[in-house]
Design brief:
Number of domains: 1
Number of strands: 15
Strand content: 15-25%
CATH superfamily: Glycosidases
CATH class: Alpha Beta
CATH topology: TIM Barrel
Radius of gyration: 20 Å
Shape: globular
Order of helices and strands: EEEHEHEHEEHEEHHEHEHEHEEEH
């Protein structure tokens, strides 16, 4: 819950030994401040060999750690696993966000083909459906069935996220694998074939956002907050960094400016004519941030992630930012106490931004459970025990 705070002094940043101190930033004025910290556990349905009872231990551990939210994946079958996870989170006082999964085949017409990826072969892109091929009638039926189940079972989901990283070719088959990397922003020609196809996918997602908003009101009384896709927020950070832009070229990455994507969803790009403002149907703006470990100037990196999006009217204020993924890899730290301190430093820096420039609603730290997959490499809970980094939920209050 937000509270009014008058910030009149610089904020000291917690700093891990051996890491650079974050420059102090003065924040002035009075505005609602404060964000909640949650965690992601989007692979939970596939953990513990699919046994719901064993999976519920993860929800209990998340609650015991002090996380206020958990982010789960919305995929079929909804029961028994996902429904059980939601109900246990409800019982333990942990709020639930679910995110639509672009890899869910039931959202596309039978026979829809995926764009081949290069994940596991030197790249980050999974085999992915083109979002321009979403079948909106199938999507509506899918979400309707889920909302009806929640109503029938008296289960509560507090937020739904409209897909994951739609502006990144790791999850959007409309964006190709591109030798040397591909960057789409305001300088990209409007008739560029890749950009045309990408915009078709964004239009589909915008229309689906409107559909979900109506279903939310019809079936759940409008109680579920609708959040735009947690997009890769590092576009301008990556493009300005020789190291990161070189990495993009190496992995054949393709990424679209998140601020451009939001402008397209709002229908206010200069090229758009009589377009619908689909952001009207969203309650918050999803974004992801993964700073490099030991980043010397976190405030600059945060600004590169959020400031471009804030140029879109309503974004970041009337419609607050939801950071649906943020975190650090375990392997980047000599021991996990240093990762804890770096997470504290990140949260403090985000707090400065929250008070001075934008409105942050929730920060989801990725990922809760450790494991051998990519998400598990960020884990904070392993073999039934909380790692040092997992103390962030109780040690940080904003």
């Amino acid at each position: 819950m937000k509270s009014l705070v008058n910030v009149v002094s610089a904020v000291a940043i917690l700093v891990a030994p051996g890491f650079a101190k974050e420059p102090e930033v003065a924040a002035t004025g009075t505005k609602p401040t404060g964000f909640e910290i949650g965690t992601t556990e989007q692979n939970l349905q596939w953990m513990e060999k699919g046994v719901p009872e064993q999976q519920l231990a993860h929800i209990d551990a998340i609650a015991d750690a002090g996380a206020k939210w958990v982010r789960l994946t919305l995929r079929k079958p909804f029961a028994p696993c996902l429904l059980a996870h939601i109900k246990r989170a409800n019982e333990r006082g942990v709020k639930v966000m679910v995110h639509l999964e672009s890899d869910e085949h039931l959202l596309y017409a039978p026979g829809t083909k995926k764009r081949p990826g290069n994940h596991g072969h030197g790249g980050c892109a999974w085999d992915s459906y083109p979002l321009s091929e979403l079948d909106l009638s199938l999507c509506e039926a899918f979400v309707r069935e889920f909302f009806e189940l929640l109503k029938a079972e008296n289960a509560t989901v507090s937020a739904i996220e409209m897909f994951n990283e739609i502006n990144w070719n790791a999850f959007n088959g409309d964006l190709p694998l591109t030798d040397g990397g591909l960057w789409i922003d305001d300088s990209t020609p409007w008739d560029d074939p890749v950009f045309v196809k990408y915009r078709a996918g964004i239009e589909k997602i915008g229309r689906l956002t409107k559909i979900v908003s109506y279903l939310n009101r019809e079936l759940l009384g409008g109680k579920v907050q609708i959040i735009t896709s947690g997009m890769v927020g590092g576009f301008y950070d990556w493009k300005s960094s020789p190291k990161l832009s070189g990495w993009m070229a190496k992995i054949k990455g393709a990424v679209v400016s998140h601020s451009l994507t939001l402008r397209l969803m709002r229908g206010t790009d200069s090229h758009q004519i009589e377009s619908t403002n689909y952001l009207e149907y969203a309650d918050g703006i999803g974004i992801h941030i993964y700073p490099q470990a030991g980043e010397r100037n976190l405030s600059k990196v945060i600004g590169l992630h959020f400031d471009p999006a804030r140029k879109v009217p309503e974004v970041g204020m009337e419609k607050p930012f939801w950071i649906t993924e943020a975190g650090y890899l375990r392997r980047d730290f000599p021991d996990d106490t240093k990762r804890l301190k770096e997470l504290q430093r990140l949260c403090q820096a985000l707090g400065v931004y929250d008070r001075s420039k934008g409105d942050l609603a929730t920060v989801f730290l990725h990922n809760f459970s450790s494991g051998t997959d990519e998400a598990g490499e960020f884990g904070m809970w392993e073999n039934g025990s909380l790692l040092s980094a997992g103390r962030i939920f109780k040690s940080f209050r904003h």
